[in-house]
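During the first year of the project, the team set up a workflow for recording each protein of interest as an amino acid sequence followed immediately by a discrete structure-token representation. This format lets reviewers and collaborators read both layers of information side by side without switching files. As required by the reporting guidelines, we include two representative entries from the current panel. The first entry is reproduced here exactly as it appears in our internal archive.
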Amino acid sequence: MRPGSDQPSPADRPAQVSGLLPWLRPVLSVIATLSVFLIAYGAVYNLGRPRNPHPDPLLAARLIPLELLLGVLAGVLAYRAFGHRQQAAPRPDSQERMVTRLALRRGGRFTLSELAENSPLTEPQAREVLGRMLETGRLNRDGDVYRLL
């Protein structure tokens, strides 16, 4: 939370951060594909030797399919690598901290709907976290209102 503000900091909202730049993952993959392709083309063109006095442009041209394949493989790996973090669910301890912060902002009392509206947790995630916190004795439930202990 930012000092002097009721708005959570970006670190408190990991689910929303990943949704801000949906174009970033494919763009980074294309950049990785083109980069590896150009590096492979340059390496073949110079026969693997920097500043080669006798480059072989015909060999480099004949091996373009192989160079493209290497680039596409790098792009796919980059796409998958950036996707795992975005699709991962928040850790249980960070979810509990979100609930605790909301409860402290609300004077120790809140409802499930307030939690779902004011945090990045979905309603099923919020129910699961509240259930865990009730089991461990960190929350008390009075009807629809939850109270932090």
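The second entry, processed by the same pipeline in the following quarter, appears below.
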Amino acid sequence: MRTSPSPTSNLSPPGCCCTCADPRPTPRPRGQIVGIAPGQHRETDPIAALDAWLAHRGTTPGPVFTSLRNGAPPLQSISGNVVTSVVKRHAEAAGLTGRVTAHPLRAGHATAAAMAGVGVDQIAAQTRHRRIDILVDRYIRPAQALHATSSRYLGL
């Protein structure tokens, strides 16, 4: 998913559907529904993480990712810049250096899904790529090249 704007959610086991607003102004704004399946491991389960966040944030309908700072309006959606700041802070705490942004969250999902054999249409629906050529050329072909390389069998 894109880092902004914040999605709203409807919990419907097993998983959840999020309605994501269009990040660009359109004449007739409408959201896109993105499904999120439960994970296989508690520590990486996105539904468990969402449940934990909603226990802290509260379950009032509205944007999922909101500011909880004192003085912030209730349920004010966070920006993509906030997501990038959080990613940078955690990367630094993990000892990672260099340029860090939130984009690899989306790119990594697309690449990992392609490596797992997920179809382009399903990946595009999840990541909300409008241009399939960009998704294929920047994420899927490089992932397939790594997966299909014969150099892995050379014993180097």
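For the second entry, the following points were noted during internal review. The chain has two domains: 1-78, 102-156. The longest strand covers residues 16-20. Both points are flagged for discussion at the upcoming steering committee meeting.
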